[in-house]
Amino acid sequence: MVARSPVSDASMTAIHRASSAMATHASARVESRHAWFSDLAADDRSWIGVIAQDGIRSFLGWLRHPSVDDSRAIDIFANAPRELARRITLEQTLDLLRTVIEVVEEEAPQHARAEERAAVREAVLRYAREVAFGAAHVYARAAESRGAWDARLESLVVDAVVRGEPDESLGSRVNALGWAEVRGVTVVVGSSPAGGESSVVDPLRRAARHAGLEVLVSVEGRRMIAIIGPVTDPIEAATTLAGHFGPGPVVCGPKVPHLYAAGRSARDAIRGYEAAPAAPQLPRPTRSDDLLAARAVAGDDKARRALASIATGTLDVGSPLGDTARTYLRTGSLEGTARELFVHANTVRYRLGRILDATDLDLTDTHDAFALRLAIMFADLEAGRRAPRPRGDVGL
Questions:
Q1: With contact defined as beta carbons under 8 Å apart, do 244 and 204 qualify?
Q2: Quick check: 68 pLDDT over 50?
Q3: What is the pLDDT of residues 279-332, one digit of tens each?
Q4: Following DSSP, what letter does each residue of 163-205 receive, concatenated?
Q5: Is 110 exposed, middle or buried (0-12, 13-18, 19+ CB in 10 A)?
Q6: pLDDT tens digits for range 173-208
Q7: Rounded-to-5 percentages of helix, strand, coil across the chain
Q8: 217 forms bridges with which residues in the sheet?
Q9: What sign has the CA pseudo-torsion 175, 181, 185, 191?
């Protein structure tokens, strides 16, 4: 719908002739009034000048042919590069527009006929409203595009971390996501809640921001992987976000120094998550190291080696703690262990305490007892493989 212009051709011509001077005055006022302008790079300052000129030119076109659904208010941003929306905020853009409109409101009516000046001022105010809506539209569109791009970057980074195969592009992607300086990282794995990806991931992001954490998230089918930092205690960070995962186990890997080392944490967390159904008694979330026994049963060689290292030395055959652990695991009681070892029950109780201090496993707990039984078995198997063959044993 096109309305009739409120000013005559003569006034339009006069205002048009003054448009370059108005743009120059507007740019000067922006520079003098807004401190953030001087902090911009020279290229960005020049683009703001272009926006001011386009805004005035667009206003003149709108004034000649007013339209209810005209898109000129949005088009004044068309020539500026998209990156400019990243470097100046919506608030700064509105400050810029207010300053330009202020200059146009002061100067444009002076070049119109006396009886048309009020109409020009009213037109300026109406157009200012359209420009404000146009700026909001541009920033909303940029935010939507940036959000989709950031989500894609996140997915690529998480995938590279999980695969443990970083390529030369990982560094630039990490920098783009603002993770280059994040120190103290853990990876948390759980099931993905029902719903679309945005409805699943956005609440997790909000919870992380509220807790002062950064998070990179990837939904892979029914599994959701979150890289979290900066963390001091991985289980504390995982507990903060566990409610945003789907039902079932939530497993966090060990803390690593930075994102580039997060592959170790991711592999442990994923292996723990896959083995977690074998240890339903463990809390949610749980550490991947608390699932060493289940992981070893599931075929995780790293978990088997970790268990063997727990028993090696401390619980070797013939050592007081080793004999106590083996006997207690076989008898299941303090008294039975004490009788077999010819020691007092309090001595057995003391040794069990020392075993707990040395291995972080409590033999009076069934889960820990099973883990320590496996640890001793794997350590003995490894010792057997390293033992020298008797003379004359040439094998098959």
A1: yes
A2: no
A3: 888 899 999 999 999 999 998 999 999 888 888 867 777 788 888 988 999 898
A4: HT---TTHHHHHHHTT-TT--SBEEEEEEPPSS-HHHHHHHHH
A5: exposed
A6: 666 666 777 889 999 999 988 876 667 788 888 888
A7: 65, 5, 25
A8: 226
A9: negative
Q: For residue 249, is the peptide bond before it cis, meaning its omega torsion is within 30 degrees of 0? A: no
CA 231, 233, 235, 240 torsion: positive or negative?
negative
Q: Which structure tokens are listed for 283?
A: 């809390």
- Measured in residues, the chain has a length of 396
**How far is the C-alpha of 164 from the C-alpha of 55, rounded, in Å?**
51
Residue corresponding to tokens 């000013």: 7
Kindly state the tokens that stand for 226. 């979150």
Residue 379 in tokens: 């350590």
Q: 168-191 burial by CB neighbour count: b if 16+ within 10 A, else e?
A: eebeebbeebebeebebbbbbbbb
Spatial distance between the Cα atoms of 129 and 338, rounded to a whole number of angstroms = 88
**Do the bridges between strand 286-287 and strand 250-252 make them parallel or antiparallel, or are there none, so unpaired?**
parallel
pLDDT digits (tens, 9 = 90+) for 78-114: 445 555 555 666 667 767 777 877 888 888 888 888 8
Secondary structure tally for the chain: helices H, strands E:
18, 5
Cis before 230 (ω within 30): yes
Two tokens, residue 327: 């006997």
Q: Which two tokens stand for residue 375?
A: 């640890």
Question: Could you tell me which residues are beta bridge partners of residue 67?
Answer: 2
